[in-house]
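Below is our example:

___
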Amino acid sequence: VVAVTITDFVMFPDLGRVVSRFRLRADENPAICHQDLELVFAELPKFTKDEHSLETTLDRWLYFLKTAKVLITIPKSLEADPAIVHAFELANQGAWSQDELDELEKREMWIAEQRHILELSKTAEQRGLAKGRAEGKAEGKAEGKTEGKAEMLLRQLCRRFKTVPPDVESRVRTAGSDQLNEWIDRILDARDLTDILGSDLSD
């Protein structure tokens, strides 16, 4: 397929199907037709099935594309298709304000960072456990978790503020687990390093 075109008007009134396919022929010799090169057109006005008549994946997509502008919630018949559910969420976001979109992006970035924190914590925990076998597994596990939090916080600070002063990096690397948790919680709404470390930055 070279291209898929979806129209909200009837493009080919002499054709009855919703989806029409055209194969490419050579002007010089019409006998030469590329069977594997197609132009596909879907004319939404020709699709007349209602929600309860949808049978195939194509039916569900055509119904969604035709009704997306007026859908308030995702219909039950479309909920089983994750791709359509995702498309519905994106369509809803199209009506959001820029502030709402910015807030969503911040939340999604925060969730992604927290997931990464967990992964780093697990990796650091494994290193800490290996190191702590000689000193005690409990101590090694706690050390690994704290190390992972510190590494993640420094990564977030670099991403948010481009650079991290050496004294701030030293303070983060030597901070305890509870202190790191407190600083991590402040990142989402922080305007500068002072908003995160607070009075600790100037100590």
Summary: DSSP finds seven helices and three strands in the chain. The radius of gyration is 28 Å. The CA atoms of residues 15 and 46 lie 10 Å apart.
